[in-house]
Amino acid sequence: MKKNIILIIALVAIGVIGRLIPHPPNFTPIIAIALLASHLFKNKWIIILPSLMAMWISDLIINNYLYGGYHDSLVIFSPSFLWVYAPIICIALLGTVLIKKVKISNIALSSISGSLIFFLVSNFGVWISGTISIDGVLTPMFSKSLSGLIACYTVALPYFGNQLVGDLLYSATLFSSYSFALSKKAMLKKVNNFI
Fold first, then answer.
1. Could you give the angle at which helices 44-61 and 30-40 cross, rounded to 10 degrees?
2. Angle at CA 178, nearest 5°, toward 172 and 180?
3. How far apart are the first and last CA of the chain?
4. Which member of 19, 113, 114, 152 lies 3.0 to 4.6 Å from 31 by CB, making a disulfide possible if both were Cys?
5. How many domains does the chain fold into?
6. Quick one: 132 exposed, middle or buried, by C-beta within 10 A (0-12, 13-18, 19+)?
7. What is the mean pLDDT of residues 33-44?
């Protein structure tokens, strides 16, 4: 249990730092953390915890410190949080199905699937509930029509490219690091048994 707590804290820290350091839009480790957690932990509540905690803590800092001037009060959850957090939960649970064994093909498929799920759900949320202020009046960002939905997804394509590359790189890095740590531990165990 202690090992799990340390892993959870480490994954949350990686997620928070990855969202706070300067980076291209959507180039973060959140999806990779969700996928690694889906491989590391068996309990479905623990699986979703690291990525959601990293997202929430970094959202608190981003919304209340970096963009604090845009809000009149403390922002605990942004108005669009359901459209962002729900796909992360789905991706973490999907990882339990797609990553039975740590193989490049499984990780790549999971990462690409995660990027696509996040893109589709979060931008659907922008289309449904996204508003901008025009002369003090909140106005929908996109028309509630098929053409408005297509326009929303089209505008978001550059962000999808960033996310896809970021998810693949972070997934490769996190899974490689974890595999390396496991092999190093196994090697040290063999050496200790030999001595």
1. 160
2. 95
3. 29
4. 114
5. 1
6. exposed
7. 94
Record the pTM.
Answer: 0.89
CATH for 20: 1.10.1760
Name every residue whose Cβ is closer than 8 Å to that of residue 4 and which is 6 or more positions away in sequence. 40, 41, 46
Burial of 7 (0-12, 13-18, 19+ CB in 10 A): middle
Please check the confidence at residue 194 and state whether its pLDDT lies above 70: no
Task: Write down the residue that tokens 């931008």 correspond to.
Answer: 123
What is the Cα–Cα distance from 96 to 108, expressed in whole angstroms? 14
Q: Which domain holds residue 136?
A: 2-194
Among 174, 53, 48, 39, CA closest to 99: 39
More confident residue, 86 or 79: 86
Q: Which residues contact 62 (CB under 8 A, 6 or more apart)?
A: 19, 20
From 114, 94, 100, select the one nearest 29 (Cα to Cα).
114
- For residue 110, CA distances in Å to 89, 97, 113, 173, 188 come to 13, 9, 5, 14, 31
